[in-house]
Design a protein that fits this description.
The complex is a heterotrimer of chains A (335), B (178) and C (371). Chain B is built from five helices and five strands, in the order H-E-H-E-E-H-E-E-H-H. Chain B is of the alpha+beta class and 178 residues long. Chain B has a domain of 100 residues: Alpha-Beta Plaits (2-Layer Sandwich). In chain B, the strands form two sheets. In chain B, strands 2-3-5 form a three-stranded antiparallel sheet. Chain B has a two-stranded antiparallel sheet with strand order 1-4. In chain B, helix 4 packs across helix 5. Classes of the chains: A mainly alpha (335), B alpha+beta (178), C alpha+beta (371). The structure holds iron/sulfur cluster (SF4) (2 copies). One iron/sulfur cluster binds next to helix 2 of chain B.
Chain lengths: 335, 178, 371
């Protein structure tokens, strides 16, 4: 067999693993979210199906699949069906370039970061299509809000990422992680600010509470997915959690040193070291996700115009200034 | 500018305070009861549907069929059937029919009864698949409850017919035909 | 009624309710919107109308006990209090003092429970899901205590013309004292978690401003008028029952926004706790029911008017009778209904999210509006 063929097989196998992992991740995250929210609210959360209610999500998934798919009469049928898929598939594809460890990475593209961002931006398209095609005013409100919010929040997000890219000097995620080594980007003050802004915008980009404008249950009933029943809704749900993972992984790779321990270089390419690296990476990513869940169950929802003001008047200037400071520091370092 | 920065810092602090509170509660013990496996004690004062009081000595009810409760019930859920057997001086209660679907648990019937023959049951787990499951025959229930309490029913006079027994034997689905 | 808009115009009609998560029941609000801005909000009522007033005219005074709780599920006891006081005033019935104290204690406990329910629901409207569980944690204790004396948790049917139907016992008194202690520790927690929160403050400060003048014009009552700086509380301005014997304050805030209403209610919980504490201390001995209760409460022909302070505002009963035990006419002025009338003016020109916040801060109980 030629080398190319072996490479292809490895890539396909890894891709399959990542897809399976995306599903498993959503199942586990739903469970984690419900369990955490339960305990925060002083109740046990799911605890009947399986040990600690671990299989609750599986049962719920089966229930969702068993439900009738209802398409409103006035809805644009084709778009209506496409939207959930569009919300779920892109983040999974984007996961392919995430370096979970030195070698556990389906493909280390030279423009990996760009690839991730372009796919992550598809999420808002899915929401827009869902909201528009539902032929429901509440859905439309949700969609309009989503577009305005995501477009606005993409700017500080990108500026923060540019800060990281400038510091590490590469668009390839693998290189970015390697360049950080033991001294993560977040250890520098400008890195910390960039991380903070990224975290906030990341929450807004994934439409998580307190920035869940497109859903805004108490205002828009369920926002863009008001009309979705059964698995249509289920796919949006899966998409949301995969997006969360994507955001958290990106932050881990860019700011938290990826699979590196702080100040200690992990050397060697053995299976055990690789596993350890994957573990370190996932621990960081899930740590961030848990904080996101914790935030969701603590705060009220912000108002839409305040959200935009916050972005344009605070986040963008701060991230811009941060970018300038980083550039300055780098230039001074060169001298 | 300074005001904005102050607000941001103050705001961030308030957010952290909120998060520390939820974290504290998240760490502490849950307060809910795990329902089907764990039930809370119901206070003895709980007002369930009305029931005839069982006389612990005789195992019978104390109703004298004066109809006060039926008349006073604002929702019209009590239907009493009483007859005067030949030779007997007093009226005998034959059927005490309670339509719990209409009852608003106001308690008027219990308070108006001259012989204190009514009480609230402690049943809170009432479920049914049809509304007929909530039509109760209280005289029958007296027999059953006396049985459950292990009270031997004492007959007062030999010549009296046994109204409780008669009621108990009546087909249960009788009230469905209304 | 908002007419169907001209399709060439840039407004749309949004139908909020009757099954909308933040209309708390079956209220329907027709919104004329320009984008996210509400131009006009028109409440449409009647989805849960059960003719309680008419029922009061065909039932005897005693038969109406059960109805009052069905009107306001949050604070059923203040509704019952108004009703029995009206009937007692109509037919000159003197109530034993102990009964009147018990009425006040349980009503205030119910008011605390009602406000706790409100905090939870208000924050749900604003998108915070956790505080409702914390407030229900406390409310549950209050309801357990009330269940212990009244036998029911929501629709109590506890007050009778001439007294109350069940005396309170040591267990209730001990439990209530513990509850007061617990609540005093919990209120600062709510202030930290909710009142101080920057997102919450941004959502409610300066939103839905009702100034003094507007509040007077529409006749809003309860925490809403007190949030506009007018210390109008029936318990003080027109004292009834044994309220004059208690030492408590009427919290007012001048801002007139949602935050002021929130603060008024939080402070009212503390004041209610004070009343309960004093009531338990002063509780006289004696019967809880007048001695000879007439089977049929009758009076000569005449009419009467009684207003009490319910959890949501001023509640009035007007009873006219022709001498039988059934009122000839019963009219109820329920607080939420009058408070809702202000919605149109307050919410014109604000955002949809603010409309939800304003409606939440009004503490609407729909069964009481559609009674
Ligand atoms: S509690 Fe009231 S409604 Fe129920 S049966 Fe007795 S009188 Fe009728
Ligand atoms: S009021 Fe009492 S004694 Fe009279 S019929 Fe009813 S239950 Fe029997």
């Amino acid at each position: 067999m030629s080398d190319a063929l072996i490479q292809l097989i490895i890539i396909l196998a890894l891709a399959l693993v990542v897809v399976a992992y995306a599903f498993g991740n959503s199942a586990i995250l739903v469970w984690v979210e419900r369990k955490l929210c339960g305990h925060i609210q002083r109740r046990p959360g799911p605890c009947e199906v399986g040990p600690f209610g671990l299989f609750q999500t599986a049962i719920d998934g089966i229930k969702l699949m068993g439900k009738q798919i209802i398409i409103p009469r006035n809805a644009d049928k084709r778009l209506f069906m496409v939207a959930p898929v569009l919300s779920f598939v892109p983040p999974i594809i984007a996961l392919m370039v995430i370096p979970f460890s030195k070698h556990v990475q389906v493909r280390d593209l030279d423009i990996g970061l760009l690839f991730v961002l372009s796919l992550a931006a598809m999420n808002v398209l899915a929401i827009l299509i869902a909201g528009w095609s539902s032929a429901n005013k509440y859905s439309l409100f949700g969609a309009v809000r989503a577009v305005a919010q995501n477009v606005a929040y993409e700017i500080p997000l990108l500026i923060c990422l540019i800060t990281a890219v400038m510091w590490t000097g590469s668009l390839s995620l693998g290189d970015i992680v390697n360049a950080q080594g033991g001294t993560w980007f977040i250890f520098y003050p400008w890195g910390f600010v960039a991380f903070l802004v990224y975290f906030i915008t990341g929450m807004a980009e994934t439409n998580r509470a307190p920035f869940d404008m497109p859903e805004a249950e108490s205002e828009l009933t369920a926002g863009f997915h008001t009309e979705y029943a059964g698995m249509g809704f289920g796919l949006f749900f899966l998409g949301e959690y995969t997006n969360m993972l994507l955001m958290a992984s990106l932050a881990t790779a860019l700011f938290l040193g990826g699979y590196n321990l702080p100040f200690i270089e992990l050397t060697g390419d053995g299976v055990m070291t690789e596993l350890l690296r994957v573990f370190i990476f996932l621990a960081k990513a899930y740590g961030m996700i848990i904080v996101m869940i914790w935030i969701r169950w603590t705060f009220p929802r912000v108002r839409f115009d305040q959200l935009m003001n916050f972005c344009w008047k605070i986040l963008i200037p701060v991230s811009m200034a941060n970018l300038a400071i980083t550039a300055l520091v780098m230039k001074l370092g060169e001298l | 500018m300074i005001a904005t920065i102050k607000e941001i810092i103050g705001g961030a602090k308030s957010l952290l305070v909120g998060m520390s509170i939820t974290a504290k509660y998240g760490m502490s013990k849950t307060v809910t009861a795990h329902y089907p496996f764990e039930t809370l004690d119901i206070t003895p004062n709980f007002r369930g549907h009305i029931d005839l009081v069982v006389n612990t000595k005789t195992g019978k009810h104390k109703c004298i069929s004066c109809m006060m409760c039926q008349r006073t019930c604002p929702s019209g859920c009590i239907e009493i059937k009483a007859e005067k057997p030949e030779g007997a001086k007093k009226k005998q209660l034959v059927e005490y029919h309670l339509d719990f679907t209409k009852c608003s648990l106001c308690g008027n019937c219990v308070e108006v009864c001259p012989t204190k023959a009514l009480e609230y049951s402690n049943e809170y787990n009432l479920v049914g698949t049809s509304r007929h499951d909530f039509h109760f025959e209280l005289v029958e229930r007296v027999v059953k409850r006396a049985d459950a309490m292990g009270i031997v029913v004492v007959e007062e006079k030999a010549e009296e017919p046994k109204p409780e027994k008669a009621a108990a034997e009546a087909p249960v689905g009788d009230d469905n035909s209304e | 009624m908002i007419p169907h808009p001209d399709p060439t115009q840039e407004t749309l009609v949004l139908n909020m309710g009757p099954q909308h998560p933040s209309t708390h029941g079956v209220l329907r609000v027709l919104l004329k919107m320009d984008g996210e801005y509400v131009i006009e909000a028109e409440p449409v009522l009647g989805y849960g109308h059960r003719m309680h007033e008419k029922m009061g005219e065909v039932r005897s005074h005693n038969g109406f006990y059960a109805n009052v709780g069905r009107m306001d599920y949050g604070g059923a006891l203040s509704f019952a209090h108004g009703h029995v006081l009206a009937v007692e005033r109509l037919s000159d019935i003197q109530v034993p003092e102990r009964a009147e104290y018990i009425r006040v204690i349980t009503t205030e406990l119910n008011r605390v429970a009602s406000h706790l329910l409100w905090i939870g629901a208000f924050l749900l409207d604003l998108g915070a899901f956790t505080p409702i569980l914390y407030s229900f944690d406390d409310r549950e204790i209050a309801l357990d205590l009330l269940e212990h004396v009244t036998g029911a948790r929501i629709t109590f049917s506890y007050f009778r013309v001439g007294g109350v139907c069940n005396d309170i016992d040591e267990q209730f008194i001990e439990g209530t004292k513990k509850f007061i202690k617990r609540m005093r520790e919990r209120i600062p927690m709510f202030h930290k978690l909710v009142t101080g929160n920057i997102i919450f403050r941004k959502r409610v400060e300066g939103i839905g401003i009702i100034d003094r003048d507007m509040a007077l014009r529409y006749g809003v009552t309860g925490p809403m008028i007190r949030g506009s700086g007018i210390p109008y509380d029936i318990r003080k301005v027109e004292p009834y029952s044994v309220y004059p014997e208690f030492d408590f304050d009427i919290p007012t805030y001048d801002e007139g926004d949602c935050m002021a209403r929130h603060k008024v209610r939080m402070d009212e919980i503390e004041q209610s706790l004070r009343i309960i504490e004093q009531g338990l201390e002063k509780l006289p001995d004696g019967p809880v029911m007048m001695e000879k209760v007439p089977k049929k409460v009758k009076s000569g022909p005449g009419d009467t008017f009684m207003s009490v302070e319910a959890a949501r505002g001023e509640l009035c009963y007007y009873l006219a009778t022709d001498g039988t035990d059934t009122p000839y006419r019963m009219k109820i002025r329920s607080p939420s209904y009058s408070n809702l009338s202000i919605l149109k003016e307050v919410t014109s020109g604000i955002l949809l999210s603010d409309l939800v916040a304003v409606m939440g801060s009004m503490d609407l109980v729909i069964p009481e509006i559609d009674r």
